[in-house]
Design goal:
Number of domains: 1
Helix content: 10-25%
CATH architecture: 4-Layer Sandwich
Number of strands: 17
Order of helices and strands: EEHHEEHEHEHEEEHHEEEEEHHEEE
Distance between the termini: 14 Å
CATH superfamily: Ribonuclease Z/Hydroxyacylglutathione hydrolase-like
Number of helices: 9
Radius of gyration: 18 Å
Bound molecules: zinc ion
CATH topology: Metallo-beta-lactamase, Chain A
């Protein structure tokens, strides 16, 4: 995909099968299972999609998936199944001809384990940044929350996924919206977490947006009330989505979905007075 002179390459860390009630929150199973059928353990597929943004200035990776440090015990505890028929993130990057050394910047929308897990890995018994040259960009608020856990958040924030970035001096903490390179911006979008940031790409009069977990699936940007049970503050996420819903439809921006197993990219249109996502690129 191209946005002006910026290239967008979807890559993946595989698919995580998670309890459907987590992603769909208060939406009844009788409604969501018609859209996304679950397996015999009530799990639905959530793709761990990441995006490579190639600009004339830099190779940028958005998100790092769950990574290769998930133990069978951690997976069993959370009723999680990780499916990776084509390997993990580094294999997916390799098919695009990208090695860990090629990545200049990693943008993390937030630090939940399915977004930051591939940021570090173990080499020769030592925990190190997966992308040895990259600066990793995170909101300071997210960093704070990831280091002040409570009973609800401690199941998804693991220091081993991000603390080595600080030790290696590869961490860049942001205080609000930020410009990354020409045409690429980070915009704060609180709700799912307080420090969530989404990525906008603008070039040649075209716009693309990577929503992160503001909307896991395309249904969640069509319907404001559809928010996940993982959201720290669902009411704030509804207000965040209200702003973006209008903005995305007005600009006819290309929306990139992180976890959607059906639609990689789509546009938000209005049909019979309702917002609807029209697929541009199907999974
Ligand atoms: Zn997620």
């Amino acid at each position: 995909m191209k946005i002006g002179d910026i290239e967008l390459l979807p890559v993946t860390d595989g698919t995580v099968w998670n309890d459907g009630g987590g992603a769909f929150g208060l939406v009844p199973k009788t409604t969501w299972e018609k859209l996304l059928p679950c397996d015999s353990c009530n799990r639905i597929p959530m793709v761990l999609r990441c995006i490579v943004i190639r600009t004339p200035q830099a190779t940028i990776l958005v998100e790092t998936g769950m990574g290769d440090k998930v133990t069978p015990e951690m997976a069993a505890l959370n009723n999680v199944h990780l499916s990776r028929p084509d390997g993990w993130l580094l294999d997916s990057l390799a098919t695009q001809g990208i090695s860990p050394n090629d990545v200049d910047i990693v943008l993390l929308t937030h630090l939940h384990s399915d977004h930051s897990g591939g940021s570090t890995r173990i080499i020769d018994g030592e925990l190190v940044p997966t992308f040895p040259r990259a600066q990793y960009w995170v909101q300071e608020r997210e960093w704070e929350d990831a280091h002040h856990l409570n009973e609800r958040t401690r199941g998804t924030y693991f220091g081993f996924n991000y603390d080595p970035l600080e030790q290696a001096k590869q961490l860049r903490l942001l205080n609000g919206d930020a410009s990354v390179t020409q045409g690429v911006r980070l915009v704060t979008a609180p709700g799912h977490t307080r420090g969530l940031q989404i990525v906008t790409i603008e070039s040649g009069g075209q716009t693309a947006v990577f929503l992160g977990d503001a909307a896991f699936f395309h249904w969640q940007i069509e319907k404001l009330a559809w928010v996940s049970a993982y959201d720290i503050d669902p009411n704030t996420n509804i207000e965040t989505k209200r702003i973006w819903q209008k903005w995305l439809a007005e600009r006819q921006a290309l929306i990139l979905f992180q976890h959607d197993p059906m639609i990689i990219a789509g546009k938000l249109i209005v049909e019979s007075n309702r917002y609807k996502v029209e697929a541009v690129l199907q999974a």
